[in-house]
Specification:
Layout lengths: L3 H16 L1 H14 L19 E9 L2 E9 L9 E7 L9 H11 L3 E5 L17 H15 L5 E11 L1 H12 L3 E7 L4 H7 L9 H18 L16 E2 L6 H6 L3 H13 L9 E2 L3 H4 L15 E6 L5 H10 L6 E6 L11 H18 L1
Parallel strand pairs: 3-4, 3-5, 5-6, 6-9, 9-10
Antiparallel strand pairs: 1-2, 2-4, 7-8
């Protein structure tokens, strides 16, 4: 009998490869052959060199689960010195080797010790069932990242910032409400996972909330009966109700996707920046937690300086606007609009990444 975890990962990857075998295979092969850290963003570190930004793969535990992460240290780093630090929380479906790593590397180039990590149950981190996506876990991940990085040699624990991208931005808003170790809070292309899973993207599924909650409840029942995702035989046809999201998509389907977020997201995650640890899948039972959660609930508890950034053409900008308007007690707050950028373009296009990084370094320099 095959190992359940191995079977699940193999099938999930196989389904993805079917979407575009040549493109996906080339991307994965490029990752394996050209970057020893499997980083897939342009300009990624390929080797640690004296006097330059270095990368350090690390592992630590959050609530007993192994977390895989990368620490980036500034040029001429010395553990005997003191540096400000920034934790970077990745997007939904994303991992530390993609845009979270890109921003972590750029901030390290600006003099910060940074930490990009894989959420528990996702990426290279531990946790079962795989691809569980519950808000309380994602928030705990950010707390755990603060636990780890504040003990890292050279980090000044009194100068700790946080950056959340996409879904990681929503979870960052939640974590910052209670974790006052974070002295400066920033989000990029913030995605309120609770609002979208509940109401649908751009409020397109409000009429099916109860129906989807019922399906999520039924999926939890099936999980408990099986004892583990996939039951004894791994993933099969009967298991489809246990997972939500997209595991396979063709080029034609991508082209027909009407929203920029999802069309460009499929291109980013399954084509141009594909990585075998990244997936659009999540457990259907996670919706029981996601649909009753909201990133803006109790947002008035944020009293730290806050920077929220979004592209002017992002079809997700409404979520940043909603959250920003509800922030009443932040020491300072600023909404920075990246002109011309869509949501996904802020992940990788140099002209937009550059604007975001410049704003972040200005923000952290002022507040850390």
């Amino acid at each position: 009998m095959k190992n359940i975890k191995a079977s699940y990962l193999f099938i999930a990857l196989a389904m993805t490869v079917m979407a575009s075998p040549a493109t996906y295979a080339q991307s994965v092969e490029m990752t394996k052959n050209t970057n020893p850290y499997t980083l897939v963003y342009k300009g990624a570190i390929t080797s640690n060199q004296q006097g330059k930004v270095n990368i350090h793969p690390v592992k630590y535990k959050v609530n007993g689960i192994d977390i895989a992460a990368n620490v980036y240290t500034p040029a001429d780093y010395s553990p005997s010195k003191k540096y400000p630090a920034v934790v970077v929380a990745h997007p939904n479906g994303g991992i530390k080797e993609q845009t979270a790593g890109l921003y972590a590397q750029h901030l390290a180039e600006a003099g910060y010790i940074t930490l990009a990590f894989d959420a528990a149950y996702q990426g290279a981190s531990g946790g079962e069932p795989r691809h569980t996506d519950k808000p309380q876990y994602r928030t705990e991940d950010i707390y755990g990242a603060a636990d780890y990085i504040t003990g890292y040699p050279g980090v000044d624990a009194n100068r700790l910032g946080v950056l959340g991208i996409c879904g990681g931005g929503g979870y960052t808003l939640k974590a910052a409400q209670s974790d006052k170790r974070f002295k400066a809070v920033a989000t990029l292309s913030m995605f309120n996972s609770g609002e979208v899973r509940r109401n649908g993207f751009q409020n397109s599924q409000i009429n099916t909330i109860q129906e989807r909650l019922k399906k999520a409840s039924e999926a939890r029942t099936l999980e408990k009966k099986a004892g583990k995702i996939g039951g004894k035989g791994g993933i099969d046809k009967e298991d489809k109700s246990l997972f939500s999201g997209v595991a396979t998509i063709t080029d034609e389907e991508i082209a027909k996707t009407s929203t920029d977020l999802y069309r460009e997201g499929y291109e980013y995650y399954y084509r141009t920046h594909a990585h075998p640890n990244s997936t659009f899948l999540y457990t259907t039972s996670s919706l029981m937690d996601l649909m009753t959660w909201d990133a803006t609930d109790q947002i008035e508890l944020i009293d730290q300086p806050l920077l929220m950034m979004a592209g002017s053409k992002a079809d997700t900008k409404y979520m940043t606007d909603e959250a920003f308007a509800k922030v009443k007690n932040a020491k300072t707050k600023e909404l920075f609009v990246i002109e011309g950028a869509t949501h996904i373009q802020t992940y990788w296009r140099p002209e937009y990444v550059g604007q975001a990084v410049n704003k972040l370094t200005e923000f952290y320099k002022t507040n850390l």
